Amino acid sequence: MNIQELPKYENAYHYLQEPLLDYVIELCNKILPNIDFDENEEPIELSSLAPRTFGIRYHKGKIDKSFRDKFLNDKGIIKTLEDLDFESSKFWYLLLFIKDYTETMRKESFSIEVSGKEQLESFLDKIQIYHNSNRVLTDSKVTISLSVKGKKGAKITNGGAISYLGEIIQYGLYCIEYENVLMDSLIKSNKEKLSKTILFWLFKETFYKFLPDVYPKDITLGKMTLVARLLYLSGFTEDKKYYNKGTAYKVLADMISNCKTPKVMNRIYN
Questions:
Q1: Distance from the CA of 253 to the CA of which of 28, 144, 241, 243 falls in 20 to 30 A?
Q2: What letters, b where the CB count within 10 A reaches 16 and e where it falls short, cover 177-196?
Q3: How far apart are CA 106 and CA 62, in angstroms?
């Protein structure tokens, strides 16, 4: 079995229609769609441009493909791809993309802070936890404080007032339109590299966006086991437990079980 070589195009936009990148294109349209606006200034999703970036990076030698023979010689993976009716060449380029997407996320990412709207939604959720059936706060221990550096602060302790504030926020959230400043999130460069745990979680989650939701039961490698083995083969870990069928599922599940996932954006592919 051989891997078909990805053609090199002078016009890089041809990668957006390259059959060997069918799986990459399908995934990118889900996780990295191109956003435009219609005549009413409403956001609409268009085909992703990320496959174009991948094709350029591939032919510039920026994509690690040193493990191709390991991939082709792994009977468990190849048999699983056959079970899923996946084409091995197309899946190979999908694997290369997800590896590069994950690695560039570690080295070339922006952190995205919570928007004003998201903060209001979280604040409202906290208020609603203490509502009784009449939608009035009854817990006298609940207070809302406002602190301003160098200024005198303020505090709300009245349950009815806090409930009413929650109703105002709930109504206001419905009125926030796309261009509103409260929809904006502050984007800044990451000073710290993403941890190994987060990278493994990202690799797994990205693959899960492509793999079938209803995964066959009688299959050579289960979904988590397949992803764990791909982590090992692509060089993310040297721990054989990620490769062995009997331990792969548990070791990856345990690794990412308590992962606190940050809001980040890939500088290369976004």
A1: 28
A2: eeeeeeeeeeeeebeeebee
A3: 15
Determine contact, residues 245/76, Cβ cutoff 8 Å: yes
pLDDT tens per residue across span 205-256: 999 999 999 999 889 999 999 999 999 999 999 999 999 999 999 999 999 9
Q: Which of 146, 136, 65 is nearest to 99 (CA)?
A: 65
Give CA torsion, residues 167, 168, 174, 180, to 10 deg. -150
Nearest CA to 228 among 206, 212, 244, 210?
Answer: 244
Q: Give the tokens for residue 64.
A: 């690690």
CB-based contact 44:22 (threshold 8 Å)? no
Helices (H), 108-222: 116-129, 159-174, 196-208
- Nearest-angstrom CA–CA distance, 132 and 139: 9
- Report the amino acid identity of residue 242: Y
> How many other C-beta atoms are found inside a 10 Å radius of the C-beta of residue 74?
19
Q: pLDDT for 34-46, tens place per residue?
A: 877 777 777 788 8
Q: What is the pTM of this model?
A: 0.74
